[in-house]
Design brief:
OB fold (Dihydrolipoamide Acetyltransferase, E2P); alpha+beta; 2 domains; 5-stranded antiparallel sheet; 4-stranded mixed sheet
Length: about 180
């Protein structure tokens, strides 16, 4: 993570053992979501105490690129010392499930990749017919048409003019799209 995790204890004394568990679980989250920016964990006693059992609330705020992830878990059982560890594990378990579900949803989606912008010069040009051939800086020749010109004026183009473009593979070979003067 880019920032150190923050563990906040509200109205309960800090416990080195619980803090070790929290840091271990944060390390597991880092392996699951290496893009995470920061993590805040808040540990506090439950506000709704019953006569026979008190509990703990654990809130986790995971800062991510895009939307952040928030998880809150409350455990109310018998023994207070066990409840805090149980609440920590339940909260981190819920966070891990939420991150895995988000990854599963993204796995099925295809992210469109755009071809890189290349540079070249016109080596063959037929302005009346509306086509030409570019020689890219790496030496490859690429066909282009008048309707592939997105900026600039077709009448101002001539042999030797420098252009920038994106190369796409067509049925008859490579051709240029998004053509504009360099």
């Amino acid at each position: 993570m880019q920032r150190d995790p923050i563990i906040t204890w509200h109205q309960i004394p800090p416990s080195p053992a619980v803090e070790d568990i929290v840091m271990t679980r944060i390390a597991a989250i880092e392996r699951l979501a290496p893009e995470a920016v920061g993590c805040r964990v808040t540990l506090e006693p439950s506000e709704h105490r019953k006569r026979t059992a008190q509990g703990f609330d654990v809130r986790i705020h995971l800062e991510m690129p895009g939307p952040d992830v928030d998880v809150s878990k409350a455990i109310r059982q018998g023994h207070a010392s066990d409840d805090l560890v149980l609440a920590v594990n339940a909260a981190f378990g819920a966070l891990e499930r939420r991150l895995k579900d988000a990854r599963q949803q993204m796995r099925g989606r295809h992210v469109k990749q755009h071809p890189p912008i290349l540079h070249g010069e016109i080596v063959e040009f037929e302005p009346e017919l509306g086509w030409g051939v570019l020689r890219a800086d790496d030496g490859r020749e690429v066909y282009f048409q008048k309707d592939g010109l997105v900026t600039g004026d077709w009448a101002e183009l001539a042999r030797g003019s420098r252009l920038k473009f994106r190369e796409i593979e067509g049925e008859k070979g490579p051709f240029a799209t998004d053509v504009s003067p360099a």
